[in-house]
UniProtKB/TrEMBL annotation:
Span of domain Putative zinc-finger: 8-35
Superkingdom, taxonomy of origin: Bacteria
Keyword Transcription regulation: yes
Keyword Glycoprotein listed: no
Pfam family, one: zf-HC2
Protein name: RNA polymerase subunit sigma
TM regions (residue ranges): 95-115
Length: 247
């Protein structure tokens, strides 16, 4: 007789004899793994019984005979393995859906800004809803770096999930790729958003075009509460800090 763990499939299909079923039930009373497997397989026996009772032509008895035949241990073992794999796939799908939902909750304000944004001229650096959100924020912190001369103002608003922020960035020329980073008081660093700076730049006072004179407004979000944030950094992808704004 196969080990008790290998018998769970046969038990669920109702193909064990009385002695085998009694032995397995005694094992099942103390085996959590078999109980979980049996829970997944338990619905199969009624389905097979229903198929066996299908009315029809001469092919029906053959179906019934096939279903009532005792499968080999290898078939039963394969059946259990397939059910276990289906359960693992279901758990992975559930995990991915939960993770995606959590990411959407945290990034929601940024996603809304991006989805509803408008562009201004060829530069497209002014997003209307980001600028509107920035203007309505009561708490703002500003700084200008003495070396890079970049100027930044970060508007903040506390949310149930953390902090929504909108950056106003001026006097930065490209081409660059930059990030807004929140640095917590415990030293943790979180990238809130990232963007590219075109050649003509953002917020250049003496620029020749209106697009280059306009600041960048871009939203971001972090799970940290405002009182947990020490400062914000605007850094390039190669690690150069353009400006730091203390919270």
């Amino acid at each position: 007789m196969p080990s008790e763990h290998e018998t769970v499939g046969a038990y669920a299909l109702g193909i064990l004899d009385d002695a085998e079923a009694t032995a397995f039930e005694a094992h099942l009373a103390g085996c959590e793994w078999c109980a979980q497997q049996l829970d997944e397989l338990a619905g199969m026996e009624p389905m097979l019984a229903a198929l066996a009772d299908l009315p029809g032509s001469g092919s029906t008895p053959a179906i019934g005979d096939s279903l009532s035949a005792r499968p080999s241990p290898r078939i039963v073992e394969k059946l259990v393995d397939e059910v276990a794999e289906k359960r693992a796939q279901k758990r992975r799908r559930s995990f991915y859906m939960i993770a995606a939902a959590a990411a959407l909750i945290i990034a929601g304000p940024l996603a809304a800004i991006a989805a509803n944004s408008g562009s201004s001229g060829g530069g497209g650096q002014v997003t209307a809803s980001a600028q509107t959100t920035f203007s309505a924020m009561a708490e703002k912190k500003s700084a200008t770096d003495p070396t890079s001369h970049a100027s930044a103002t970060v508007g903040m608003e506390q949310k149930d999930w953390g902090t929504q922020a909108v950056l106003e960035l001026k006097n930065v020329k490209g081409p660059l790729k930059c990030s807004l980073v929140a640095v917590a008081k415990n030293g943790q660093r979180v990238t809130m958003s990232s963007w590219s700076v075109p050649d003509w730049g953002y917020g250049i006072p003496d620029a020749k075009t209106d697009d280059a004179k306009k600041p960048l407004y871009i939203g971001g979000a972090t799970a940290f509460k405002p009182n947990e944030i020490d400062h914000f950094e605007i850094v390039t992808f190669d690690g150069k800090k353009l400006v730091q704004v203390n919270a």
